Each structure stands twice: as structure tokens, then as C-alpha cells.
Write the C-alpha cells for this entry.
Amino acid sequence: MRSTVLTRWLRQGLKFGICPLCRASHKLDREYVWYFVDQWSMKDTVVDEVAAARGFCAEHAEQIRRVEVDSLGSTIGIGNLYLATLERLSEDLDRLENDAELQQARCPACVYRDEGVANNARYLLDELASETGFREQLESSVGLCVPHFQLGWRSTTDPSARELLLAVERTALSKLIAELVEHLRKQRAEFADERPGEEARSWQRAIWLTTGWPPPRTPASVPEDDDPYGAMADSLAAAVQRVSSEQRPQ
Ligand SMILES: [Zn+2]
Ligand SMILES: [Zn+2]
């Protein structure tokens, strides 16, 4: 059995109704972004890593900007970081030979996240094999998104671990397919007076199952509340309500 500290993000994912590895991924991003703004941006070694990557990737640059500029109201840290990045770029361009390529390291926040998610995929497989009740929870959940199912699959070559992973994913997938079929049935004119239920959001969950779940909107500098994905669900519910009332016969 794994320590509950190690598996807490996976359990939060199940609780919030999203892919458990997406939850781990969101938490790792929040962790990196917050530590970066709070401490790491002052360390030359970390600034060097960002400069070697030619800055953060677009996704992580935006997360850092939201915390530093929108939330903390400062541009000094970002200004200094990108000055160092541009100066390094300028030096490297000065030295770039005509037949060589400009070197570029991976975004350090992506590296941090990928390593953390890979660890969590192993915890998930261990938990699935050893922890009573975890399999049932995962089976009755929304399942893993496709990118994280792939990651889990590639994290092991053990046939029984793969078998378990496949079984829970297939169960979760069949449930979602049934909900989507039910949603489409209710869209037909002859059933238009039936009230939409949970299946009304199945098309959105189908998108998220294939792409991964989007992170909560709160920036990393703002502590999460008890329901960090609630606003997303509420706006979705409102959109569903709007669409279904617009489609209702007059
Ligand atoms: Zn995922
Ligand atoms: Zn990145």
C-alpha cells in the first residue's frame, strides 16, 4: 500500500470527477509555478535552465504571468527572467555557426510536470494492484484521459497491471458512451420534453477524456477552495441549461 501522501492527488482527481493523473498534473504545475515565483526565480541555476529553454513554453509562461503580473501586480521578476533569457539568446546567436543548430532545452516546468506525472502513474498502478476499493473507485470514475491512459500503459509491461488498467478504462468508457447515446436520444424532437440529466454534460466529458481535463481557473498564488473544478462544472451546467431551453419547443 502506498502512503496516502503520495496518492493524495490521485484521490482528489477521483473526488473531483476528473482524470486522476490530470489532477496530479495540475497540482504539479501549481507547485512549480508557485515555487518559481516565490523562490526559484532568484536562483541563478533555475534562471539558467529557463534561459537554456529560450523561456518557458507558452502554457507555463502564461501560468507564471497570471501569478506574477495579474495576481501579485509585479513585472520585475518576469522582466529580469526574460532579460537573462534574451541576453543568453543574443550570445548564442552571436556564436551560431552557419551549419549548426540553435540549441534549445525543454521547458523546465514541463520537465518537472512530466517527471511528477510519471511517478503518479506508477503510484496509480501500484494502488490499482494492491489497494482494496481503489479499482472500484476508478471504475466508477470518469476514467483516465487518453494521454494519461497511454502513459499508464507504457509505465508497465506487467501483463496483470495492464489488464487491470484496461479493465477500468473500458468500464469508464462504456459508461460515457452510454451517457452520450442517451444525450443524443434526448436531443431528438420527439423526446425534447424530457429533462436533461447528468448525461447532458457527456459530450464535454468526451472531449476532456480525449484531450485531458483543463486545470482550475484559480492561479497558483490563490489557495484552492474545496471544489476547485466547481466553477468549470457550474459554467458548463449553465451552458447546458441555456442550450436545452433554447432547443425546447415554444
Ligand atoms: Zn489525464
Ligand atoms: Zn512548459
About this structure: The radius of gyration is 22 Å. The chain has a mean pLDDT of 89. The chain is about 65% helix and 0% strand. Residues 8-247 form one domain.
